[in-house]
Design goal:
The protein is an alpha/beta fold. The chain has helices spanning 16-19, 26-36, 99-107, 125-128, 147-152, 179-185, 197-210, 218-240, 265-272, 315-322, 330-333, 348-364; strands spanning 8-9, 12-13, 45-48, 65-66, 76-79, 84-88, 95-98, 114-116, 136-137, 157-163, 170-171, 188-192, 245-251, 256-259, 276-277, 287-290, 302-306, 337-340. The chain has twelve helices and 18 strands. It starts with 7 loop residues before the first strand and ends in a 7-residue tail after the last helix.
């Protein structure tokens, strides 16, 4: 995937040029960490495992993640989805996490001390909706992390996502040039954001357990049971309407981006449950790009419209509503428009709500909107 084919975020594209901000090289890193404190801790190691061999996903026990389930002090070992193993002499308690990663950890009972993202926590829906709007922030602009502030917080661990389809893979929200500097402050753990969405949920659950979360806590058991029940509800709804079709889309004023189902982790899971998504013709991964005048090119019974946004609103929905042809689409006339919470938080609690919405939409939809 080339840099211009990264996901549409809040109605725009994220390109590598936006986040490859110059943060200095190795000499700067060494000088910076020396100024902030002793960055040479022989008890902390990050070790690459065999290239291309990240830790497997799965629930239950995981040989790459171990810690007391009650958060007691003890050795911490976790192999992330780069295949990098982080070994620490004690379970980390001072965690700085990218916004969506922070939300996922919070859902699992692990509360980071600070976050970074593309806005202040109060303006980041995934954080504000969890009552985390007052969380400390070390960066509110894409990949522009305040390294001095990060170091002053004395973190034990930095957690973020991994976008593996570029060369080199993108450590989400961190400029390439800043990775070495940050790793001298605290080790970085990444979890793949492109694999089917259950992978991210399983891996964050494993990480949370390694960080001291109790997987048998009643609220976590309830979250998992809700996710499983909601998955079965979608499966049953789809089976009852085998001809019903869904089309995922994200829009800007200038373009309509149609989702390639297998390249979106959440849609891939919906398809696994039996939901039939329209597959647009394109040689490109992730999205097929068409003009606003072609918005009706691929009819579907349900339109799944990107609902991502910030405090400023939902740019994709705004672009849809501003398109003079949108109201004439069969799904729009039938009232079968559904918010697509694209790039969902990788937690059972969060994703179960998306499944509930999809099951309800399919249950109430007419499968005959498109002949």
């Amino acid at each position: 995937m080339n840099p211009e084919q990264l996901p549409v975020i809040a109605g725009g594209r994220v390109s590598r040029r936006r986040f490859l901000a110059g943060m200095g090289g190795a000499a700067f890193a060494a000088a910076f960490v020396a100024a902030c404190g002793d960055g040479d801790d022989p008890a902390v190691t990050s070790t690459p495992t065999e290239a291309g061999s990240p830790a497997p996903a799965g629930s239950g026990s995981n040989p790459t993640a171990s810690a007391s389930p009650t958060g007691e002090a003890g050795a911490f070992t976790f192999t992330d989805d780069r295949g990098v193993t982080v070994d620490l002499p004690a379970v980390p308690t001072r965690i700085v996490a990218q916004a969506d990663s922070a939300a996922a950890l919070a859902d699992l009972g692990i509360m980071p001390i600070a976050t970074f993202g593309e806005a202040l926590p109060a303006d980041t829906p995934s954080l504000a909706s969890r009552g985390l709007g007052d969380m400390e922030s070390v960066g509110e602009v894409w990949a522009e992390i305040d390294l001095e502030k990060l170091a002053s917080l004395n973190p034990d661990l930095v957690v973020t996502r991994l976008y593996p389809s570029t060369d080199p893979p993108i450590v989400w929200g961190i400029a390439d040039e800043a990775i070495a500097t940050i790793e001298q402050i605290a080790p970085i753990v990444t979890i793949d954001m492109l694999k089917i969405t259950t992978h991210g949920m399983e891996r964050f659950a494993e990480l949370a357990q390694a960080l001291g979360a109790n997987p048998d806590a009643p609220e976590l058991v309830a979250d998992l049971e809700h996710f499983e029940a909601a998955s079965e509800a979608v499966r049953a709804a789809a089976a009852a309407k085998p001809g019903l079709t869904v089309l995922g889309m994200s829009l800007t004023p200038d373009n309509v981006y149609l989702a390639v189902p297998t390249d979106h982790p959440d849609i891939a899971y919906f398809e696994e449950l039996g939901v039939q998504f329209v597959v647009p013709e394109t040689a490109d991964p992730t999205w097929a790009t068409i003009s606003p005048e072609q918005i009706g090119r691929y009819p579907a019974d349900i339109l799944f419209i990107d609902a991502r946004g910030t405090g400023a609103g939902r740019p994709s929905w705004d672009a849809f509503e501003a398109n003079p042809l949108a109201a004439s689409l069969p799904a729009a006339q039938a009232g079968q428009l559904l918010e697509w919470h694209a790039a969902p938080i990788p937690s059972y609690r969060d994703f179960a709500r998306n499944l509930d919405d999809l099951a309800a939409a399919i249950d109430s939809a007419s499968p005959d909107v498109v002949a």
